[in-house]
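Form 7-S
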Amino acid sequence: MRLKILSIIILLLPTTLIYAQSYRIIKIIETNLFELENGQKVKFYGLYIPSQQDTSKALTKLADNIKQWETDYMLDRSFKFEFISKDGNDIFTTVIFRSHAFSDENLANRLLSIGYASLLVDTEKKYYAQLIGYQEQAQKAGLGLWKESLTTLKSIDSPIFDSQEEHLSFPKKYENVNIPLLVLGVASFVLAWDSFSTVSDIQATIDNIKSVSKEIDVSELETSLTRKSIVGVTCLIAGVISTLYSFKSIEVKTNFKSVSMNYRF
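Output:
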C-alpha cells in the first residue's frame, strides 16, 4: 500500500514545477536567435551571447563554439518556453527550460556556468539574483567570455561586468525565513504523516477482514481509505509548497546530469 501512496505522490509532485509551452527548436539562426516548430522566433531573456557578427575575431571564434554547442544540445529537441516580451521584429524574449524527471532546468544556468553568456545590465533584478551565481562560477574558472584575453577587450557589443561591478550595481540580498509559512509547511507534513499512517491502518483492517471472509462489506472502509489518501497527498504537496515559499530566496543549481537546491536565509 505504501508503494501505491508513493506512486501517487510522484505523479502529483510535477504539478508544482514550471508551467510553460513546449516547442521543438527547428533552426538555430544565430547564437541567440532560434526558430520554433510553429514558426516563432525566440531569444534568451536577459543574456548577452557573443554573435558570429561581432567585430572581434576572438568573440566570433567563441560564437562559433557556442553555436556548435547549441546545435548539439538544442537543435531538433523540445523545450519549455516562458514568453517574456515581443519586439518590433516579432521576436520573443523567453526563458528556456529543459525538462528532467522531477525538475525543469533553466538553460541560462548552463550557458552562464560555462562562460557562453553574461547577464545584461537591464535584466530584471530578481531574475538577475537567481542567475548571478552561475556567472560567477565561470568568472572564477576563467571560462568562455571570462578568459583574460576576452575580458580586456574594449569593443564588446554588449556590456559584460566583472564580479566587483556586479555586486556594486546589483547587490544580492537574502532576507530571513518567513516563519508563518514555514510553520504551515511543518503542520502540513505532520497532517500528511498522520493521514498516511491512518491509511496504512485502514488497509491492514481491510486485509484482515477479507482474510476472514470475502462476504463482509468493506465499502465504507475503502471509501475512508481513498479519502484519507487524498488528504495525505494534498497535505504533502501543501507542505512542500509552503516550505519552499517560506524562504525569501531559493537557488537551484542544475546541469544536464544533476539537480541541487540551496536555500539562502
